[in-house]
């Protein structure tokens, strides 16, 4: 499942305005040792805390800093402005909400350094992977997807899908899996012979 930081990276790296400014120089955590040209954008998570919301959900609240370095003041400002345009009030993937929390600016020997700070809330789940496991859980806004081998079970506002096919009401079977036992959507366990329901 993509982490909150991976979700942020995807949102930033897919923004045309930001990538026109920094190209692919968007770095989580630290700048590579061999990265000398600017401009670039680097982001860090100086603090993450558990957060229980009023509806009983469990979230993580992160404070995230986006550092931009550029040769000119205008370029550094344009980078943090682009980050703010993408992320302020952002929701998607593991992120339930993100809000701008301030900006600072300084001039250094390396160039103009601007920092945009955001408070980001995201859902987190504890997943324990077993050795050799080939499965994935992905959550999105109002959806969850479970992948196991070649099969995908999706639950969202539109209903339940197995491998892209709606699983209907009235005790429809999950069927079409390779051997073993599966639970029907509305009933008990039934054997799976690989031939479907």
UniProtKB/TrEMBL annotation:
Gene3D superfamilies: 3.30.2000.30. Pfam families: Tail_completion_gp17. InterPro entries: Gp17-like, Viral_Tail_Comp_sf. It comes from the Bacteria. This is : DUF3168. It comes from Gemmata massiliana.
């Amino acid at each position: 499942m993509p982490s909150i930081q991976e979700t942020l990276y995807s949102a930033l790296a897919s923004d045309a305005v930001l990538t026109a400014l920094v190209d692919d120089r968007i770095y989580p955590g630290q700048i590579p040792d061999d990265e000398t040209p600017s401009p670039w954008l680097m982001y860090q998570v100086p603090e993450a805390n558990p957060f229980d919301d009023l509806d009983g959900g469990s979230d993580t609240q992160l404070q995230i800093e986006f550092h931009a370095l550029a040769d000119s003041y205008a370029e550094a400002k344009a980078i943090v402005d682009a980050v703010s345009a993408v992320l302020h009030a952002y929701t998607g993937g593991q992120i339930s909400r993100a809000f701008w929390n301030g900006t600072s600016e300084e001039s250094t020997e390396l160039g103009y350094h601007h920092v945009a700070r955001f408070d980001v809330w995201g859902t987190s789940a504890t997943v324990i992977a077993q050795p050799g496991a080939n499965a994935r859980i992905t959550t999105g806004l109002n959806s969850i997807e479970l992948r196991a081998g070649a099969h995908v079970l999706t639950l969202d506002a539109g209903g339940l899908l197995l491998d892209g096919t709606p699983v209907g009401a009235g005790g429809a079977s999950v069927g079409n899996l390779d051997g073993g036992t599966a639970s029907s959507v509305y009933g008990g366990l039934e054997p799976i012979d690989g031939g479907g329901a």
